[in-house]
């Protein structure tokens, strides 16, 4: 799982304004109401404040080449929306590819063996190094693809390579095997200035006098770019191998919201593709102001979900947990 996720998640939760009822262009009586459970999601098209069902959302996406659904990892509202959208998109356009940040490209073979029925689920989880929350969050999506014989793309960069780039810098890639180099993007560190600024703010990096990062933060950022560039390249590879197919890509919202990260790099590589971004927003506590003012740029569509519970209220326990989390990422050698 993305080792940057805790810090990035905290940083992306900007204070939201409150909410007022917003009519749908399709149904003048439709209003935006608060999600009632952690499973619920309220979908909005920000450009005209239209409230949408997931069926209406799918209809708007029927001709889109790449549909990118951002998520807060482990949030049931994100994953239920992804599953419903996957099914509805398939019903109107069966030529579909499921692309997932949650599997790394070096485990594509192990994932393919499961899709072909050659291994069981536990074997796949172990062999493909699936995320800890695979069964609770991603099983329904993979099983839908498996039942309908749809390609599932392990889109992320290898975790060990990302970790070592973060520790040693981009030059680490010079020492990886030729077979792995061929699987990684030819330009693994393509960048956009806006994403750099967002990343710096998210991890708390301070601007230097010359507006550059510290050496350590620069390496960390390069590791993040390797993830985004790899996912963009893998999406394009999947499209090339399956012409005319629609890609449904699942990723942490930091990689896609505001049209940055993977999305910006995908558009740089293939500006002719149509790409739609669907971004999550936590439901605000203040109900006095329209909620979309500060969230309008986050995606072509946004969906409101209930906030996640606080992980900690004891600051010392939180620090201990973070130290343990990051120490586990540094116990393997990059030599």
TrEMBL record:
Keywords: Signal
Alphabetized CDD domains for the sequence: ChanN-like
Ranges where the Haem-binding uptake Tiki superfamily ChaN domain occurs: 57-265
InterPro entries: Cofac_haem-bd_dom (IPR007314)
Residues making up the signal peptide according to the UniProt record: 1-17
Keyword Signal annotated: yes
Protein name, entry field: Haem-binding uptake Tiki superfamily ChaN domain-containing protein
Native source species: Marinobacter salsuginis
Lineage: Bacteria, Pseudomonadati, Pseudomonadota, Gammaproteobacteria, Pseudomonadales
């Amino acid at each position: 799982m993305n080792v940057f996720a805790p810090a990035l998640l905290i940083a992306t939760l900007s204070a939201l304004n409150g909410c007022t009822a917003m009519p749908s262009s399709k149904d003048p009586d439709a209003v935006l109401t608060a999600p009632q459970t952690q499973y619920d999601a309220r979908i909005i098209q920000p450009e005209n404040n239209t409230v949408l069902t997931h069926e209406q959302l799918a209809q708007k996406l029927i001709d889109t080449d790449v549909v990118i659904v951002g998520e807060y990892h482990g949030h049931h509202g994100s994953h239920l929306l992804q599953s419903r959208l996957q099914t509805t998109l398939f019903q109107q356009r069966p030529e579909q590819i499921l692309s997932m940040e949650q599997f790394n490209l070096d485990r594509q073979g192990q994932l393919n063996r499961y899709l072909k029925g050659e291994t069981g689920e536990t074997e796949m989880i172990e062999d493909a190094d699936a995320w800890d929350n695979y069964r609770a969050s991603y099983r329904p999506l993979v099983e839908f693809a498996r039942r309908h014989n749809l390609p599932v793309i392990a889109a992320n960069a290898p975790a060990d390579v990302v970790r070592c780039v973060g520790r040693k810098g981009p030059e680490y890639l010079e020492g990886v095997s030729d077979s792995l180099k061929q699987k990684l993007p030819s330009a693994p560190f393509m960048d956009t200035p806006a994403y750099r600024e967002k990343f710096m703010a998210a991890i708390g990096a301070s601007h230097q006098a010359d507006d550059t990062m510290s050496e350590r933060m620069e390496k960390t950022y390069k590791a993040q770019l390797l993830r985004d560039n790899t996912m963009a390249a893998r999406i394009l590879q999947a499209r090339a191998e399956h012409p005319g197919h629609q890609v449904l890509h699942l990723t942490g919202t930091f990689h896609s919201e505001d049209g940055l990260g993977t999305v910006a790099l995908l558009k740089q590589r293939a500006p002719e593709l149509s790409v739609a971004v669907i971004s999550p927003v936590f439901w605000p506590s203040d109900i006095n102001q329209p909620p979309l003012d500060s969230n309008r740029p986050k995606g072509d569509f946004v969906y409101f979900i209930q906030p996640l519970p606080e992980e900690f209220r004891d600051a010392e326990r939180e620090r201990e947990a973070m130290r343990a989390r990051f120490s586990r990422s540094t116990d393997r050698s990059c030599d």
